[in-house]
């Protein structure tokens, strides 16, 4: 669904049908350590870029919103884990590295090497 910022994010939900006024980030809603989400947090959120860069189905993201200096500056922190290999992921844009092993990709690489020879 498109965020208020205009980017696609599968964790954002809105419903304005028949008088409803629901806007929420379901990723923040799952995190009890996070502060409450506001629609303008979407403009600073790295989650849409992470989802676009890494399509691994085993990547579990955690978004934490914390405020600084009397609640004026809000910081968005992303944590990631791999549910398949049970690893903490340092760079969620890349993933754990173990899930990237694709046998079809290896066959494609070998075919390219044979064409170059």
Per-chain topology:
Layout: E1 12-15, E2 22-25, H1 26-29, H2 47-53, E3 59-68, E4 73-82, E5 87-89, H3 103-116
Antiparallel strand pairs: 1-2, 3-4, 4-5
Description:
15% of the residues are buried. The protein has helices at residues 26-29, 47-53, 103-116, and strands at residues 12-15, 22-25, 59-68, 73-82, 87-89. By secondary structure, it is an alpha+beta fold. The protein has one domain. It is 21% helix and 26% strand. A hairpin with a 4-residue loop joins strand 4 and strand 5 (87-89). The mean pLDDT is 88. The chain has a three-stranded antiparallel beta sheet, with no helix packed on it. The chain has a two-stranded antiparallel sheet with strand order 1-2.
Q: Kindly report how far apart the N and C termini lie.
A: 46 Å
Strand content: 25-35%
Molecular shape: elongated
Low-confidence blocks of residues:
none
- Main beta-sheet strand count, sense and barrel state: 3 strands, antiparallel
Helix-strand string: EEHHEEEH
Q: List the domain count as a whole number.
A: 1
Question: How many strand units?
Answer: 5
Q: Largest beta sheet: what is the strand line-up? A: 3-4-5
Average predicted confidence as pLDDT = 88
Number of helices: 3
Radius of gyration: 18 Å
Which bin fits the share of residues in helices? 10-25%
């Amino acid at each position: 669904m498109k965020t208020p910022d205009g980017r696609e994010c599968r964790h954002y939900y809105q419903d304005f049908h028949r008088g409803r006024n629901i806007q929420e980030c379901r990723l923040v809603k799952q995190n009890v350590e996070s502060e409450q989400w506001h629609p303008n947090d979407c403009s600073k959120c790295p989650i849409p870029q992470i989802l676009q860069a890494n399509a691994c189905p085993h990547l579990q993201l955690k978004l934490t919103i914390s405020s600084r200096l009397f609640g004026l500056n809000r910081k968005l922190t992303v944590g990631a884990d791999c549910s398949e290999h049970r690893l903490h992921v340092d760079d969620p844009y890349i993933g754990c590295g173990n899930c990237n092993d694709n046998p079809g990709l290896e066959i494609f690489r070998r075919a390219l090497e044979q064409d170059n020879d």
